[in-house]
Amino acid sequence: MTRLALFLLPALLCLTGCQREEQLGSGETLVEKANREGVLIMGNSNEPKGLDSQVVTGVLESNILRALFEGLVSDHPSEDATVLPAGAEVLEPDATATVWTAKLRQDAKWSDGAPVTAHDYAFAYQRILEPSFAAKYAEMLYFLKGADRFNKGETTDFKEVGVEVLDDFTLRLTLRGPTPYFPQILKHYTWNPVPRHAVLKYGTMTQKGNAWSKLGNIVSNGPYQLKSWRRNDHLEVERNPYYWGADKVTLNGVRFLPINNSYTEARMFRDGLMHVTYTAPPEIVDFMKKENPSVLRQEPYVGTLFFRCNTKRKPLDDQRVRRALNLAYNQEEICNKILRGYKPAYGMTPPMAGYDSPHAISFDPETARRLLAEAGFPGGKGFPRLKILLASRETAATVAQAVQAMWRKELGIEVEIENKEWTAYLAAMQEFDYDLASSGWIGDYLDPLTFLEMWTDGNGNNLTGWSSKPYEELLQKSHQEADAAKRYALLREAETIMTAESPTLLIAWYARNYLMDPAVEGWKPLLLDNHPYDVLRLRTK
Amino acid sequence: MTRIILSRLFQGLLTLFVLVTITFFLVRMMPGSPYTDEKALPKHILEQLKAYVGLDKPLPVQYLTYLKNLIVDQDMGILLKRDGVKVSEIISQSFPVSAFLGVLSIGIALIVGLPAGVIAAVKKNGPLDYACLGAAMMGICLPSFVIGPLLAVFAGLGLKWLNVAGWNTPTDWILPAVTLGMVNAAYIARLTRGGMLDVLNQDYIRTARAKGVPGHRIVTRHALRGGLIPAVAFVGPAFAGMISGSFVIETIFQVPGMGQHFVNATTDREYFLIQGLVLFYGFLIVGANLLSDLAQIALNPRLRASA
């Protein structure tokens, strides 16, 4: 029996090897086959939580929604600051950039052939703001006049919200104040229209779990429509024949793979099973730099890595202590040795669209020691043993260990590292049961506000206990400022206050490390990483 | 026999009830909730979401509602982070994949483990015994997250015989099934060896040898039935474990089975999915144990007599 098994196993492996070649053509890899078919295969980190753009909140879902849906405007394939007309042929602001009128294209259709009208947009905006729908990302629409009051149930009349359908193809949006950067906000998927007819076919407007976005029911208005979806296996989209720009769409489809293990992903990439990985582990980055640098991509990404300080606890309630901690670790070294590709963060907001953060933070151990002494801890004497809270993620642990060692060396203080499972870590932070917490923030849109508004009093993402009246007044002023340069100056002033008080200890600005097959053409670095798929090409040999 | 089956069924139901109850309360004691997210939700949204699924009610009310839905409506609930998806939908989609992988794996484990255990026992303290024991020890000591990637690199990236991951073609079944099977084959080989040695040292085997019964006949006709009992006792629960999915194997080889849901549900605090999966797993264990008991009764005359 054993002999038989020993004989059969290699034989079976040989046979399957032949089968594999037969399946893919003579020696053709899956990627080569996909190149011929014009289907991009991408790693997408995990299983999407849904395809209803008014329900989901994650980056990986947005990668799929970008293929399926289109809002009033869309992303430019290579320029971060530029928006392209999409659902709207024309998007015009008034003189104060407070009232925006969108002239919709009349040839825009849903994937079942029904026209996309202004009513679909208005329906979508009402749906996401309806209190009973309890959309997690409704706040993204608070730029609309009266949207927050309606969403909080302070008024029940949607007419008080700044959404007006002038005719079937004209939509007027009135905002809470001058918002010259509004087209950037509109790129976010929460502003996508939803097919009113499909939503109402499978339920009511505010019904939770409405089946309209499930496989077989879903209709979309983007360049692609849903083709297949097998949980924990793949989700594939194919060309939408009713898309207004269908003749300009280059890729025939995109296949998203929910691979949450970065090593599996790297192995699959090397085996020719996918074009683009979601991420690349640090070891692979080093290996690829030596072995095959042409496939390694390292690009800036609009995100900041930092430690939150619990300013409700001593001694972190003292601004001098927080600032001392912030100046006593070498960001450059951390970026070079651990966070390959990341840049040292000298402000909360990473560089974007002409905005440059105040250069508030740099490695300055001498000043750090002086500040700590002023706060009553000369040479670190008497400093309590604080804990850095982090979630079980390897890179975060390595960064925390580096900071721990640098603080010991530069300030003479000891901190502990406390590792928790992801949700337990979030819960501890939200209950203020921490001293310092390793954190990060990815911008929702390309404007400094997405990094600054969260530090206001009562904001659910603040979680530091810090608040500042002058800071909030400056943000409020910026909401009323139509001139872009003056507005940036106000935001910069606000950010200067925040970085000086250091409720967060800034570490690095994010980068994206990933692997991409050279066959993919037209993929340019983008800060928000929102690549439009319809302009990409796959080169065959 | 009927009495034993009925008794085991009653015990199984009681076990499942206790399991459901303990899981319900333990899950609720975990820090955070399904709505604890990186981007904190506004209070008014959070309240609405909790009210929608009844998480705003007192815990005993939630428990009774869950039991009522489970027993009366056969409804295991919905996913809290995936709008409109039912727990039963997740199980019905992922279980067939895990079950198929489990059957393949247990087949490999039995084909490799049983003969290896028997040979090791028969050739006790000989080179073959040491070889089998050594291989089994390696199989037990090397975790699947080491064996799996090594196999993938060897058979996929190195020899280009198989895909390193995925679940698209029949050839994609081989690596995960072999990885999962080999780990269990090692246990089965050890248990079979032990069981066979016990039997081979018994008086009736010595009598058979004295009567001149040939060695292979002693093994196949007289010793095998009793020698397999420890392995059979192991195979039941192990089989349940294998067909309900192995998170590690499924992650390494990107298999769309139940294993990944087990872990993700816990991280996401998907209350109803955790409860549903634990209940389903419990059901499989109870069923597998029952079958294992019946198999042992069939193999062991003393048990058969007492039944």
Could you give the topology of this structure?
The complex is a heterodimer of chains A (541) and B (307).
Chain A: H1 2-24, H2 30-37, E1 39-43, H3 59-68, E2 73-75, E3 83-85, E4 88-93, E5 99-104, H4 118-129, H5 147-151, E6 163-167, E7 170-174, H6 182-186, H7 196-202, E8 224-230, E9 234-239, E10 253-257, H8 262-270, H9 282-291, E11 296-309, H10 319-327, H11 331-337, E12 343-344, H12 365-374, E13 386-391, H13 394-411, E14 415-420, H14 422-430, E15 436-442, H15 449-452, H16 469-479, H17 484-501, E16 504-515, E17 520-521, E18 537-538
Parallel strand pairs in A: 1-10, 13-14, 13-15
Antiparallel strand pairs in A: 2-3, 4-5, 5-7, 6-7, 8-9, 9-10, 11-15, 11-16, 12-16, 17-18
Helix pairs in contact in A: 10-12, 16-17
Chain B: H1 2-29, H2 43-53, H3 59-71, H4 87-122, H5 127-141, H6 144-158, H7 174-200, H8 203-210, H9 215-227, H10 229-243, H11 247-253, H12 258-267, H13 271-299, H14 301-306
Helix pairs in contact in B: 1-13, 4-5, 4-7, 4-10, 4-13, 5-7, 6-7, 6-11, 7-9, 7-10, 7-11, 10-13, 11-12, 12-13
Structure notes:
The complex is a heterodimer of chains A (541) and B (307). Chain A is of the alpha+beta class and 541 residues long. In chain A, 32% of the residues lie in helices and 19% in strands. In chain A, helix 10 (319-327) packs antiparallel against helix 12 (365-374) and helix 16 runs antiparallel to helix 17 (484-501). The radius of gyration of chain A is 25 Å and the shape is globular. Residues 1-19 and 21-25 of chain A have low confidence and may be disordered. In chain B, 76% of the residues lie in helices and 0% in strands. The longest helix of chain B is centred in the middle third of the chain and has 36 residues, at 87-122. Chain B starts with a helix and ends with a helix. At the A-B interface, helix 1, helix 8 and helix 14 of A face helix 2, helix 4, helix 6, helix 11 and helix 12 of B.
